[in-house]
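Good morning,

Attaching, inline, the C-alpha cells for the sequence recovery test we're adding to the shared suite. The designed sequence is right after.
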C-alpha cells in the first residue's frame, strides 16, 4: 500500500480534486505476490480528454511509482464515475474499492 499512497501524493500535485481507489484482489485482500494492482483515478482534469490524453496525465507517475509491477487503471471524470455506478465496473469500485 505504500506505493499506492505515494501515487496518490504525486497525483495530488498535478490533478485537481483527484480521487484514487484500489479495487479487485488488493482491496479484498485475496491477492498473490504477482497479482496486478487495480486502480481507478477520478478527477475533473479528465473532462474533455480522450482515454490516451487522460493516461498521458498519469503515465509517468504510474511508471515511477510502480516500475514493472502490473497495474490496471481506469480513468473517470467525477460525472462519469457517478453516472456509471449502475454499470459493472464503477459498482464494483463502489462496493469493494478502498478510497485512498
Amino acid at each position: 500500500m505504500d506505493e499506492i499512497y505515494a501515487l496518490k501524493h504525486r497525483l495530488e500535485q498535478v490533478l485537481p480534486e483527484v480521487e484514487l481507489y484500489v479495487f479487485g484482489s488488493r482491496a479484498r485482500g485475496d491477492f498473490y505476490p504477482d497479482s496486478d494492482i487495480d486502480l481507478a483515478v477520478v478527477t475533473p482534469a479528465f473532462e474533455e480528454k480522450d482515454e490516451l490524453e487522460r493516461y498521458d496525465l498519469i503515465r509517468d507517475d504510474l511508471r515511477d511509482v510502480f516500475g514493472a509491477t502490473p497495474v490496471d487503471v481506469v480513468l473517470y471524470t467525477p460525472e462519469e464515475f457517478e453516472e456509471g455506478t449502475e454499470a459493472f465496473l464503477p459498482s464494483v469500485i463502489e462496493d469493494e474499492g478502498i478510497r485512498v
